[in-house]
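The instructor's notes for this session suggest beginning with a concrete chain rather than abstract definitions. Hand out the sequence below and ask the class to guess, before any prediction is shown, which regions might be ordered.
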Amino acid sequence: MSTPSPSPEDSPSPSQSPSPSPLSSLPDSTVITFPDPAFEAAVREAIGKPTGAITKGDVAGVTSLDVSGALEVRGDIKDLTGIEYFTALTELICYCNQLTTLDLSRNTALTELNCSGNRLTTLDVSRNTALTTLTCYDNYFPDKSAIIGLDESRTRITFGTQRSP
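After discussion, reveal the predicted structure:
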């Protein structure tokens, strides 16, 4: 029997000090639930597992993940729930999709993020102390304050043009 994915209520608020993620105590056999079938398909392709349950152990060693859509045609991914299990992830490329919110606070190894060309109104990088490069132009951010936990003293940000919702 598999352990269910933690609920969002299990996540500490960004104002709390960083602590070990409850995900780290889950066994590698924990089955990950991906509510977005397009994201699940992209993960399956990335890890080379076309069928069967995707577990914490399947994604634990993934350091780079590219789930971007084509520049000319927006991708189908609307939700990256499940990304929190990618604990070794240092690079995430998810540009040109349909994301509206993105919480990467549990991906503490992340150093590079490109989330441009989505529909983002909020982005949580509150525990991403290793983040050095953030590219997030062409979204719906009202301004940089919509990026929770952004520390511009350590993160090079390409913010650029933002769209109106």
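Then share the key points. The domain at 27-165 is CATH 3.80.10.10 (Leucine-rich repeat, LRR (right-handed beta-alpha superhelix)). Helices lie at 37-47, 56-59.
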